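Example A, followed by Example B.
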Amino acid sequence: MKMTSRNSAITTLSRGMLAALLLSFVFMVPNAFAAAEKTGVVDVAKVIQQMAETKKAENILKSTSAQWKGSLDKLKNDFESSAASYEKQKAGLSKAAREQKAKELELKLKNAQKFQMDKFGPGGALDKKKAELFAPIRAKMLAAVKSVADKEGFNLIIDKQAMVYGASAADITAKVIAQLK
């Protein structure tokens, strides 16, 4: 009988020590990992804005957009002049001719609207061109951020736009811009 009470005392003591050990582990491990973390901040928008490639890409986008806008304006002007001409001639046209002209006008309007959506709508050619032009710029910026982070010993870099607060010493924006030049 004494053996059983002794075993239960040892078991209770072992459980208590195990619980204390687990508790200390739970509270100490996050602090150990936190001490090893070094977090930096970069203003991604500012870095991209400072890159020479960005200005070239923006100029290409403006030029492309202007060309497409010119084509769209021609389509709209053609529709408007055809509509005005139709209104003037409508009274003297037969029913079949009026229907034919109305179909032609509808087709011109649909073509202009389709062109506008294809070029300027969400996911349109302008959005695709922008993504195509800015993908290498973003990749170059990310490589520069990684290079600076590796040199400075940062484990984590976050965008300044997503940050609520950060010490200015953690801001590596100027170093990233210098790396890119």
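Example B, a separate protein, is given below in the same form.
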Amino acid sequence: MREGLARIGRVRAVINITAIACLSSVLLSSLIWSQAFGREIDWQLISTASVVPALICPFVMWFVIQMTLDLHHMENKMRYLASYDDLTELLSRRAFLTSSQKLFSLMNRSHKPFSIAYIDIDDFKKINDSYGHAAGDEVLKSFSVILEVHTRSSDLVGRIGGEEFAIALPDTGAHGAARVVELIREVSEQQMLTTSSKATLSYTISIGISTSDSNKTQTLEQLIQQADRALYEAKVAGKNRIIQFETETHFT
């Protein structure tokens, strides 16, 4: 019902409901008038029966429909906030994991490769300490735009927490995943960001990749753990690089 009201709009809904109320009042009054009093239906009866709903119904229904639409919009907003990160507008951690699981299962059934990339902005705490948390938020938003621009429509991109992000790459092997994230790493490294406070800063990222093995039975959770481990190794190895879990080969 709420979806229907949202589609037709408040004004049209009030007009339609008022018309229905008037018609119902006329029909009911006519039935009572003829059955109880044995009187014929005339224009005076029709006018009287339609005046009250015509006067009252628009005001009542305007209020009721507004409350209904407000509730509908609030529910939509709550669903959006549950699925998307408020700052970056990327998928939230929960939504990313849920959608990735469906995609991973589909790739498994189709015997196609599936890769997960875990990404961390290097020295993000220093950015916050040096330029302030507002600048840190601008870095996160700037990087989220890079992710959206340089990933494919079939990929899933989410903010996992803090300065950590993840990409799910369906039908993509290790080398294909490396190509996608290497471009993201290069663009991030070359970008000079001017914040709203007029500070100019740059940043780098570290990335860990894990790819499903058709010869092994794996779960999405295992792939994520492997990508997270590869990300840790990229940090230890000096940051601003990519490490793939399977071979621990890095691309700089």
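On Example B: Residues 161 and 201 are 22 Å apart (CA to CA).
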